[in-house]
Amino acid sequence: MEFLGSASTQSCITQKRGRRVYGDDRDFKSKNLTAERRRREKLSNRLLTLRSLMNKATIVEDAITYIEKLQMTVKVLSDQLLEMESSSEESERPRNDEINAAEEMKKHGIEEKVEVTNVDGCKLWIRIIFEKKRSRITKFLEAMASHGFELSDTNVTTFKGATLISSCLN
Known about the structure:
Blueprint: E1 12-14, E2 20-22, E3 27-29, H1 33-92, H2 96-107, E4 113-120, E5 123-131, H3 136-146, E6 151-159, E7 162-169
Antiparallel strand pairs: 1-2, 2-3, 4-5, 5-7, 6-7
């Protein structure tokens, strides 16, 4: 070791390997300490930037995958909707038996009508005759339920193109 004066008279002593001792506390400081700190800080910042880019890339990749799944779902649902629309168009056309039912009802002199008879204070007996068509009974029952009527003892009969519904209303 080389000493350049005494420790008590000089504030800095230099040793062989480039380290300096400041004062009496003997803390060793490297010549390149600040440069090394800057290098480590730069490296740390670059690693943080890389990590953030990796996270962003993962997010974008996940978003792309999710959008592709949604596009496939839209395509499947669109196909199903088109299929349902085509089948409903077929079902909206009157079938031969429905056309024949209306003609048969007219041929036998059966007319559409509604009769209501008061049975007891708050009970009514209803008798309805209408043309036999698909889903007419369902629509009738839905309409009655939407107006708050309860049907009990209901009887449904079809004959010669006509539908007869007789029921007790509460």
